[in-house]
Design goal:
The complex is a heterodimer. By secondary structure, chain A is α+β, with helices and mostly antiparallel strands. Chain A has 24 helices and 22 strands. Chain A folds into four domains: 1-47 and 298-428, no CATH class; 57-275, no CATH class; 435-464 and 665-796, no CATH class; 473-627, no CATH class. The chains are: A alpha+beta, B alpha/beta.
């Protein structure tokens, strides 16, 4: 019996190559997308599971509550928390701290920057990172020992076994020798902790004073709980220890800096860390991910698979007329409805199997593309995992069932008397089929609108006038420089004609607080700049004056603020107002106000900003504007100058335009993903429509023949065929547009600077869908309309 | 074997009732070879379908092997005709995707015969109809007469007691038709009850009894 079914199925597939191709190809795209998503999801949930103590490891996180009720979630701690909790709480078995840092490393005549982690010496018994060489117990005992990953060992020493080799490394002011004490296996791709270079925390402790300061948050503290320890009890104990031991520091902070926030500590399971949006993986813990990505990808994939299944259902039901005779015969010679349902389900399984095999090939081919889209390093070998194989078999069965069940029910219900005596006409209004087409094209329209909106918003963000001049600007990192050091560098750099202008800024991004209007606390972004900063970037000073060498006191007691600062402080006449850096006992006077410019990404509104020439804010980067077309010369010249002046400093530069675009990398990724999804859905929907149109033309061959004989022109007949389908597509577009409008609006609310949804976008998308549908259908319509009527009328 | 008592069948067309069968009463005994004749539209095929339980009468009583067909549930009814009745059609109605062998085998599959039994029964048929050489051909590779032979082989392979044939020679030339009729006669002599619908006087004459239909009535 089974053999009979499979034979019929295969011969049927072969006989209808065209439709089989549409079905198999469409389904395989859908299945392939699902496979990729499974891989993605599996990778997401597999993060950090390779640690032996994975169920015992927690990260110490903090909630910082300000008096106004605002809660700031902090995933890091200071130096004190780990050792103090460990010493005082019996439930805690061990604690390991991990701090991200940068080393400068001498490699021949070059100096390169290498990121590394300071970790406590029990690191290798705490986490499961197997060592290739060296002893896990002693590897981190010596403050001047360093552990390298296999890759890094090869890069520095040309071989993995680098035990005993020495690296000249600089964390502070001077280079010091570090001895390689162990080589660790490269961490797996699904590890939140990337162990390229590890240095003992003892080295860091020796450099710092006041190790047991509780009130800062810059490193990760992990603890292991004893088996069976009560989580809540442990958390309560942690807060008790904090309130006892940090009491003096808290009151000190309150007195000196007006600190009035309440800190409470919690434990975050290691396994939750990767996908946690409250306490993201940061500060040396990497690859944190928002589960939203998984959900959106899953939804898109589901849509694609659904559309492919709809094709299968529609084509099978529409083609059933041809199968009607066979069904009648089978019933007359003894086939029960049940066995016919089985037969048709079996057929969809066979087809599903082909689609599945093609999907495996497709997945293989698409994996590199998908990896770059999803920023993952998924490998095809993941597919061989037992659970995933089960999931794929499930997917295969689900797809076959989804696609095959309805047609099987419809087809098996045919009455033999009707089908065998040619009375049979599949005359039902076919609401389901039409509904499915509408559904398909609604999804397609929706995705097209989404694509257009994402594209427009992206281009809007990139093309936005940020209020300053960022073209042809290169940023070069320097060591800390004072004003005279900068003068030397400036003279050297400006000697080359490729460089047009130069300005300097302190390093990093800093936010701080100060008192305005007496003792009102205000938060703001602070920058230490050189006096030509505003003219360099073309930022207009709209009130008062710029910094000037003519006023020697500028560098000590003058500040320039932006408009938002003025607004936040509520000043009517800002010039001459006082900004009181109370914790430094230093008062500054506002000498000028600049126009607001978008110094951070457009995902945020411009917030208060303050500029100072305070020599304490030492320069750590220079911006240089190169002349049109002389970018390579500028890069080379700056390299030569820096090498000459600062031979121990790695040469690091970027371009401001790239840095700005980086702000929108997540948008860029979504832009790509959503356009891929849209292209796929249009494609699958249209091949389905193509098949349906061809069937419709075939079914109506006789009618078309009669019309032609009666004198209808080709265009009239074409209109006849295309109109049916176009109407459905139009209905679909009308249904999808309001939804797309709402979704687009909701998405745009995330952006303080956003496009307005012009009706053009929607009209354009609707037109595009109609155009694609028309293109698809008209091929068949023309073919039908131009066919010879005599032939069509003879056979019936 | 078959007893029809006052059978009526009609369709409603725009308010008026059109009768396909009127007051048909008919008894057919085991082993008979009946030919049903009559002009187009006289209700021959409808009558055949009613007897084959593919269609249902609107009024009247139909006893098949002394069982009242109307009282049976759909499932029992189809089980009954599947066990006892074989069908042959004017247009052969073979499954295009299956070979000669597979076409003949299909009814056996539905009746859950074992594989070895099936092949024995199919081979017996192929042998009987001299089609062994053609067993792997597809229907479109055969002539009309050969296709009809396959159709008959398929209808009788599972040993029914009644064969219903709807113009079995309608698409064949006279020589092929004659061969089919000879075959029917032979099958009838082996004990198979046959009811055929035909236009041809000559073919009708092969039957042991001729029933003339006109406007849905039996003419005497």
């Amino acid at each position: 019996m089974l053999k009979n079914y499979i034979i019929t199925a295969l011969r049927n597939l072969w006989r209808n190559k065209f439709f089989s191709f549409i079905n198999i190809f469409g389904l395989s795209i859908g299945i392939s997308c699902c496979m990729l998503i499974f891989l993605y999801a599996k990778d997401e949930v597999s993060f950090d599971r390779f640690h032996e103590k994975k169920d015992q490891i927690y990260r110490v996180v903090a909630e910082i509550r300000s008096p106004d009720g605002k809660v700031n979630k902090e995933s890091s701690t200071g130096m004190a928390q780990g050792p103090r909790f460990d010493a005082n709480i019996p439930e805690i078995e061990d604690a390991v701290r991990m701090e991200l840092t940068d080393f400068h490393i001498k490699q021949g005549s070059e100096v390169i920057e290498q990121s590394a982690l300071f970790v406590d010496d029990r690191f290798f018994s705490f986490f499961s990172f197997p060592l290739l060489y060296g002893d896990p117990k002693t590897a981190l005992q010596d403050p001047h020992s360093v552990v390298l990953s296999e890759d890094l060992a090869r890069r520095y020493f040309g071989k993995a076994d680098a035990i005993g080799k020495t690296l000249q490394m600089k964390a502070g002011e001077d280079f010091e020798p570090f001895v390689v004490s162990a080589v660790v296996k490269n961490p797996p791709a699904n590890s939140s902790i990337k162990t390229d270079m590890l240095v003992s925390m003892k080295f860091q402790e020796a450099r710092q004073e006041g190790n047991l300061f509780w009130m800062n948050f810059y490193l990760n503290t992990f603890v292991t709980l004893k088996k069976g320890a009560d989580l809540q009890k442990t958390e309560a104990a942690m807060n008790r220890v904090y309130n006892q031991e940090a009491a003096a520091q808290i009151s000190d902070m309150a007195k000196n800096y007006g600190f009035n926030e309440k800190v409470s500590y919690h434990l975050q399971p290691l396994l939750n860390m990767h996908l946690d949006t409250d306490y993201p993986a940061e500060n040396g813990v990497v690859s944190g991910s928002n589960p939203l990505y998984s959900y959106i990808l899953m939804a898109i994939t589901g849509v694609i698979l659904l559309i492919a299944c709809i094709n299968f259902i529609n084509l099978t039901v529409a083609r059933s007329l041809k199968r009607a005779k066979e069904i009648g015969i089978r019933k007359v010679i003894g086939g029960q409805r049940k066995s016919l349902v089985l037969q048709f389900m079996g057929e969809s399984m066979v087809l599903g199997l082909f689609a599945f095999m093609l999907a495996i090939a497709l997945t293989f081919a698409l994996l590199p593309l998908f990896n770059s889209l999803s920023e993952k390093a998924l490998s095809f070998s993941y597919l061989l995992d037992g659970k995933l194989v089960l999931a794929y078999i499930g997917l295969f069965l689900l797809t076959s069932f989804l696609a095959g069940f309805y047609p099987a029910l419809v087809l098996s219900a045919f009455k033999p008397v009707e089908t065998l005596y040619g009375k049979f006409r599949f005359t039902g209004k076919n609401y389901l089929s039409k509904g499915l087409i509408v559904f398909q094209f609604s999804l397609t329209t929706f995705l097209i609108v989404a694509t257009v909106i994402v594209y427009s918003q992206f281009n809007y963000l990139l093309g936005f006038d940020l209020g300053y001049d960022h073209g042809r600007v290169m940023r070069v990192k320097t060591p800390k420089m004072n004003a005279s050091g900068y003068e030397v560098l400036k003279n050297e750099l400006m000697a080359n004609p490729s460089i047009q202008a130069l300005t300097a800024q302190n390093g990093g991004q800093w936010r701080t607080i100060a008192h305005v209007n007496g003792d009102v606390e205000q938060q703001f972004d602070i920058r230490g700049v050189s006096d030509n900063y505003f003219s360099f970037f073309g930022i207009p000073v709209i009130m008062g004056r710029n910094f000037s060498p003519a006023f020697p006191s500028d560098s000590i007691s003058s500040v320039v603020v932006n408009e938002s600062f003025v607004k936040a402080a509520g000043w009517k006449n800002p010039i001459g107002e006082t900004v009181d850096f109370f914790y430094e006992h230093r008062k500054c006077t506002v000498i000028g106000v600049i126009r607001d410019y978008h110094y951070s990404s457009l995902l945020e509104n411009v917030s208060p900003q303050l500029f100072s020439m305070n020599p304490q804010l030492r320069y750590k980067q220079v911006y240089l504007k190169f002349r049109e077309g002389s970018r390579p010369q500028a890069i080379e010249h700056a390299r030569a100058v820096l090498r000459k002046l600062y031979p121990a400093q790695p040469y690091q530069y970027d371009f401001l335009d790239d840095l700005i675009a980086e702000n929108y990398s997540s948008e860029a990724r979504w832009k790509q993903i959503i356009s891929f999804a849209a292209v796929l859905t249009i494609f699958i929907s249209c091949i389905g429509l193509f098949g349906l149109a061809s069937l419709s033309a075939e079914k109506r061959a006789k009618e078309i023949g009669i019309r032609k004989v009666l004198g209808a022109s080709v265009s009239v007949i074409m209109r006849n065929i295309t109109l049916d389908f176009l109407l459905l597509v139009l209905v679909a577009a009308c249904m999808a547009l309001p939804l797309a409008w709402m979704a687009g609006n909701a998405w745009l609310q995330n952006y303080p600077y956003r496009i307005s949804l012009h009706p053009f976008i929607f009209a354009g998308a609707a037109l595009a869908v109609v155009f694609f549908a028309l293109l698809t259908v008209s091929y068949q319509a023309i073919k039908a309309a131009r066919s010879n009527p005599v032939r069509n009328l003879r056979t019936d | 074997m078959i007893a029809l008592n006052h059978i009526y069948k009609y369709v409603n067309q725009g308010g008026t009732r059109v009768f396909l069968l009127r007051d048909i009463s008919l008894n057919i005994a085991q082993g008979e070879f009946i030919s049903i004749m009559g002009p187009s539209g006289s209700g021959k095929t409808t009558l055949l379908n009613v007897m084959g339980m593919l269609d249902e009468a609107d009024e009247g009583e139909y006893l098949f092997l002394d069982q009242p067909v109307k009282a049976l549930k759909e499932k029992q009814r189809s089980a009954l005709y599947k066990q006892h009745i074989g069908f042959v059609f004017q247009a052969y109605h073979l499954i295009d995707e299956l070979t000669v062998y597979e076409n003949i085998e299909t009814p056996l599959l539905y009746k859950d015969y074992k594989s070895s039994e099936r092949s024995a029964m199919v081979c017996e048929m192929l042998d009987k109809f001299n089609m062994v050489a053609k067993k792997d051909l597809f229907p479109h590779q055969l002539s009309g007469g050969q296709q009809q032979l396959v159709g008959i082989a398929r209808a009788i392979v599972s040993k029914p007691t009644l064969l219903l044939a709807d113009e079995p020679t309608g698409n064949l030339n006279s020589q092929q038709g004659q061969e089919i009729m000879e075959l029917f006669k032979k099958l009838n002599s082996e004990g198979l009850t046959i009811i055929q619908v035909t236009h041809s006087e000559k073919n009708a004459a092969y039957g042991s009894r001729i029933i003339n239909l006109s406007d849905g009535r039996i003419e005497n």
